Amino acid sequence: DGLYTIGSVGTVAQGRGSDLDFWVCVAPGLPGTDLAAVQAKLAAIEAYADRTFGLEVHFFLMDLDAVRSNNFGASDQESAGSTQAKLLKEEFYRTVMRLAGGLPAWWFAPAGAGSEDYAACLAGLARGAAAGLPVSDLGHLGAIGREEFFGASLWQIVKALKKPFKSVMKFAILDVYFAAGASPVLLCDRIKERLAAGSHDLWDVDAYAVLFREVFEHYRAAERKNAASLMRMAFLQKTGYSAAARTSGRPQELAGASYLEFFYPVTGHPMEAAVSPAAGDARADERGVFARHMETGTMVSNFMFKTYESVMQRVRAMDMESAVSEEDRTKLGRKIVAHFGQKPGKVARTHFVDPPGGLFAALEFLCEGLPGTPMTWIVRGAAQTAEERKAEPEELARDKSPVRLLAWLVANGIFRPGQHLAGGTLQNPVSVPDLAELLPELSAFFPHDATFETGVEEGLKEESVRRAMVVTNLLTQREDPRIREAALIYSTNWGELFCVHPTVEVQLLDRKPHEFLKKNLPLTIHPRCLCTAWAPRKARCAKVNFGPSAP
Q: Exposure of 280 by Cβ count < 10 A (0-12 exposed, 13-18 middle, 19+ buried)?
């Protein structure tokens, strides 16, 4: 019935790395075998696009009756499920480009049309008011109640875990809607209104530019400077927008930003000043490259979690029932807590906007403190580029436990196999070769996707330990035949990594390692939990053997 795009396609935010999301709308009542065949064909096209062009393409097969009733299925890694019903349709109407099939009937209705006006519009189209054009009814939008914003907030946070700057403004608009009262003016209606009035200004009609304008002006008016700054940063990072880069628009110069000038003539809109370089921007050059990554990642994390808590408080204060199903609320809520929440022993992760892997050519370890006492372990990074290598290595983190520090490097994607490792004064008897052996073991045993990108459906299951590694006698003299100390690193099905160091009853590791796990783990151990142990190469202590059976 219709083929449409949804998202950044055709907006100022579309770039070479943008994925392409398509709605393939089919008439109701097609046999299941036909739907399965279409789905298989779409999957083949997705694979072809990836293999041939390196394009990330997603086709969403939509039944028209389901679309009209805002039924988008259960939530998973790609589908919002019950967490977004009308809000998903609002995004569709705000960003839709029709590629084939019917023109959305919503286009013909007045901005903000109620159900009666929309029905009257459909009746007019049926009588031929569209002058023979193919028209498809994808359903009335109408007002969106506040009860839906809570569930949508859950979904946008989960989406932001992988691509923070892609979702941070989408999440912010939910905050704007919620604060606007019972019936906020939706962005799709704002854009439709401005188009009907004849405006072609980028800041009036481009879906992504309008999104930024709304959230930026909201936070600036509320004097939330950090949030406004984050919105500006997200917009510039996602779009690479630069008003200064525009050219005269002559045909031979139409490239990049000058295309904007051709389609959206410059009008001197106040938003141009908002995205121009700010006076404090040069300050970033004075900080280390990792410090800038940490600062931005922390800003994103703080904004997402604080805004989520704010929405939660409003929902509770209004004693309002959420439109999201109990199942979606549970599993998405647990996914959010897994990424942002703090727990005893949890290995902290910063949700970097750009993954830090590859930032550093080398990692350097050193210790501070008095010999014979527990020392503070420090890791520093030497940058990749020749210009950055002229500077001193940048301190990345410090910890009393060397194992927890190594786990932090792995969890945050800073260490990568093959990376050069160096050491200054280290706590006796640890050597750089010990670290060079343990880091790859940690990285291989706790792969990123299996450890942290567990499916959202795991949130409906009991939290349990899925992988556990014991590190023995790292800080003990190598000739000691007994296991004197041990660190325990483990991951859960909810996507969290923990480090217990020091541990208790280490003597159990010699003969009853599974009992040792039970004594030191606060959670249920899954029957198929993967267990392993590591000790320094020269250590003479007994090797821990978990055997083939699970704990």
A: exposed
